[in-house]
Amino acid sequence: MSVVRRTTRRLVGRGFLPSLLVACLAASAVAVPAVAVPAVAVPAEAAAQGIVALPRCGPRQDCAVVMPVPMRASVVRTGTRVSARLGRAVVHYEVTETFVNRGAGLGEADYLFPLPSGAAFEDLRLSINGELVAGEVLDAGRARAVYEEIVRRQRDPALVEWMGRGLVRARIFPIVPGEEKRVVLRYTQPAQREGDALRLDWRPARAPGGDAAPPAPTTIALRWDEGDGFGTPWSPTHDLRETAPRTREASVGGSDFTALVPVREPREAAITMLTHAPTGGDRWTMITFTPPAATVRRQPRDVTFVLDVSGSMSGRKLEQAKAAGRQVLGTLEAGDRLRIVAFSSDVREWREGFTPATRERLGDATAWLDGLVAGGGTNIAAALDAAYAVAASDEAVPVVLFVTDGEPTVGVTDPEAIAAAARSRRGSRRLFTFGLGADVNATLVERLAVEGRGTAQFVRPAESVERSVAITAQRLTAPLVTDLRVRAEGVRLVRLHPDGPQDVFAGQDLVVFAQVEGRGEATLVFSGRGATGPVEWREQVTVPEREPDNAFVGKLWATQRVGWLSAARRSGGASAETDTELRALGERWGIPTELTSYLVLEPGMAAGPSTASAARGRPTGAAASAKNQVFFESARRASEMRAAQSVAAVDAMAVGDDAGATTRQVGTRRFERRGRAWVPAGWRAGDARRVVTVQPYSAAWFALADAVPELKAVFALGDAVTVAGRQVVIVVAADGVTALPRAAIAQIVQEW
Q1: Domain spans, the chain
Q2: Contact call for residues 373 and 455 (beta carbons, < 8 A)
Q3: How far apart, in whole angstroms, are the C-alpha atoms of residue 419 and residue 423?
């Protein structure tokens, strides 16, 4: 038994830690992706329990729990407000959580939040002295060291770590008795279409035992942009009240919330493209394919339902799984065929081979499901072998629905061997997996689905598994296009995510993210297999030379890329190339990964002698813009006064000007300090682009900042900055020019 297990069990027994966090502590080693497995099924909102133990993990994942504040604390959630803004095919979420320490000693909020599938982390802001302060991404090990060092000083840091499968963990310390802390988490997710509506879901906290946590007041506000073809949202679960134009709100309490936003369902296929090209060089795109509303005929399906009936499934889990099976049976129609496989230590089948989905046979299948009992171990490898043992019809879409709650304990137990065998035998089958509870091997469940061209869903304790399976099964009633691929003529799409052929079912869109090489007029081509044979759709698009808007497109692509690299790292092991790209993506786009974490520090706080290179927290977004504006107004006044001491005072106001920092993130640009100067990360001398050098706080400096608004945040780094555009490099230095003609400004704007 490892050190962490022995220690955490003692802490749980003595009341120091809720049992929910045993898995969380065991999953704290950064840069070893397999350790994230036990934590992924932990409920997002249930983990603010006053944690005062900080894990330290060694290279073999042996962890020792350090107790910097050896006292009990009771940090509870007192309110949640969710703001969801729908616009341009994505949903921008802002989740505000309020925590209060109701105990007698210092407490730490340990906050686990699983981002929805495909969502991109934007930032987390912590309320410090009434100001919302954001942070930046650092090397994961260094960020944790800084956090723990400052915890010992009892200051106000916050650390966001990647815990696998989109799960992020935020730790905030200290929270003194009676103190209230406010945390704001922002993320972006592609809109999920279901038929003629976009669907938004929110699920409340669950306690460790599976029951709903004591419901804090929860409000959800849904806003939608004008002019994007959205109808008025409605909710099948709650009353939505109008609070402002194009705004609806609901009080959720402790129940699941769903909202549907009507959209026009096209009669013909629709292809849209959003591009982000901030510098005129790198370009990222989000391509959405919406299939036509109707199809000539429905494709038949060969459905294999695989059900875990091991001992851990006894009780409510098994009843839920049986209900899920009945939901699947209810979606079958004439022409479909069915198999049912139940597994524990061994494997049992309802009937040998596929059975036509007649009314009589479906009745027999229901009775067989109802008679299943739980017992034995978990033989996942044998269950997959049985699922793939019978060939599907060439005319049918082969689908496997796989439900389990456990770790493989019988037969082949090595996840790598199980995944490799499943991949070699899968053939053309589509595998959809459902992981139940906190003990499931989430890495394996997710990998099986990704490699099986399906999806993985994770169901928290006491959540309705039949609902999750029913949604998937309902979508599978009408596969519209299979083996769908996208290519471009006139430009080149690289690093596509998802890559390879995809399937599009009724009421779904296919969203593809890619980097684009080239610009100008192009044609997007989607081709695949429909109900009557090969199909193809084409759309003329324009790839802009420069597009500073739609920054979320680049971050969503980067998030997909991080997931792909992490999966490659788990299956093939770490490599210098993979780790370099993973770390670079995390740092450039501000994304917590296996190798990077997001750290918030008090404004003006130095990290300390042992971590002097760590960056301090600073405002971002609207707060950063406001601070930049104050900086520029002060700079203008100082420039007018021509007083050296005033200019020096203004220079000290530069956003993020911390002598201890070696890197800075400004939007999508990353800078590194070389001496006194800030230069683009990886900058090499001898760049062939035209160079324009301007004096800080001069008329030329202000004119450029006004002409190219993006430069304001860059210039705010200090009085020695180099920044590169598409065809021109701007250098801020003491020997620069003080004035530029209008024609020169116009040329720089054109070359930028």
Answers
A1: 3-262, 279-291+479-546, 301-475, 622-751
A2: no
A3: 6
For residue 104, pLDDT beyond 90: no
pLDDT score for 456: 79
Question: How many helices (DSSP H) and strands (DSSP E) are in the chain?
Answer: 16, 39
Residues 587 and 593: beta-carbon distance below 8 Å:
no
Least confident of 166-175, 190-199, 235-244, 447-456: 166-175
- Three-state SS for 434-476 is EEECCCCCHHHHHHHHHHCCCCEEEECCCCCHHHHHHHHHHHC
Residue 460: its pLDDT value, please? Answer: 63
Query: Residue 502, Cα to own-chain centre: how many angstroms?
Result: 21
Question: 37: pLDDT confidence band, cut at 50, 70 and 90?
Answer: very low
Question: Can you list the alpha helix ranges (DSSP code H) found in 225-372?
Answer: 316-331, 359-370
50-79 pLDDT, tens digit each: 222 223 233 333 322 222 232 335 788 888
Residue 635: the pLDDT is 55
Pairing of strands 663-666, 669-674: antiparallel
Task: Look at the domain 3-262 and name its fold.
Answer: Immunoglobulin-like (2.60.40)
Q: Which helix (H) or strand (E) holds 270?
A: strand 270-276
d(CA 136, CA 129): 19
In single-letter form, the type of residue at position 504 comes to V
DSSP letters along 186-209, please? Answer: EEEEEPEEETTEEEEEE---B-TT
Query: Tokens 């103190």 correspond to what residue?
Result: 179
Query: Quick check: 105 pLDDT over 50?
Result: yes
Name, of 187-196, 249-258, 268-277, 683-692, the range with top average pLDDT. 268-277
Q: What is the DSSP string of 662-678?
A: SEEEETTEEEEEETTEE
3-state secondary structure at position 504: strand
CATH homologous superfamily of 279-291+479-546 equals Gamma-adaptin ear (GAE) domain (2.60.40.1230)
Burial of 727 per CB tally in 10 Å (0-12, 13-18, 19+): middle
Q: How far is CA 710 from CA 37, 289, 351, 707, in A?
A: 41, 32, 65, 9
Same fold across 279-291+479-546 and 301-475: no
* pLDDT, tens digit, 9 for 90 and up, residues 598-609: 888 766 554 443
Inter-residue contact 113 to 94 (CB < 8 Å):
no
- Other residues' Cβ atoms within 10 Å of the Cβ of residue 91: 21
Res 372: pLDDT = 92
> Using 50, 70 and 90 to split pLDDT, how confident is the model at 285?
very high
CB count within 10 Å of CB 57 equals 22
Residues written for the chain = 752
pLDDT of residue 657: 38
Highest mean pLDDT: which of 61-65, 618-622, 689-693?
Answer: 689-693
CA 21: distance to chain centroid?
A: 22
Give dist(CA 75, CA 109) in Å, integer.
6
* CATH code for residues 301-475: 3.40.50.410
Instruction: Output the CA torsion sign for 288, 293, 295, 301.
Output: positive
Helix, strand, coil percentages (3-state) for the chain, rounded to 5, are 25, 35, 40
CB–CB of 297/334 below 8 Å? Answer: no
